[in-house]
């Protein structure tokens, strides 16, 4: 299976960092997957994935399962300002 070469961006090549995971090591790549990316479909057909909307959605996810980690608050301290990488749509389960 071929993987997109996204890891080198910002790491060993110039550009914005888009992932800290090497190809195949993301929780998205486990089978079954331990991660998902979310966008919120609105009644008018538009899609929201701004930080505010995903912050509200993250509260539902965290209330549903304490093992959920949100890409807007990786260290799970309730603060979104202290993250090295914001991945607002990303949710994953811890082990
Ligand atoms: Zn993701």
TrEMBL record:
Name of the protein: M15 family peptidase
Source species, domain of life: Bacteria
Q: Which organism is it from?
A: Hymenobacter montanus
């Amino acid at each position: 299976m071929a993987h997109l070469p996204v890891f080198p961006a910002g790491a060993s090549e110039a550009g914005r960092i888009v992932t800290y995971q090497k190809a195949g090591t993301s929780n998205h790549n486990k089978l079954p997957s331990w991660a998902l990316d979310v966008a919120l479909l609105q009644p008018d057909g538009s899609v929201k994935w701004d930080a505010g909307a995903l912050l509200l959605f993250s509260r539902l996810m965290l209330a549903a399962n304490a093992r959920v980690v949100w890409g807007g608050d990786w260290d799970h301290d309730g603060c979104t300002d202290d993250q090295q990488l914001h991945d607002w749509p990303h949710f994953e389960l811890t082990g």
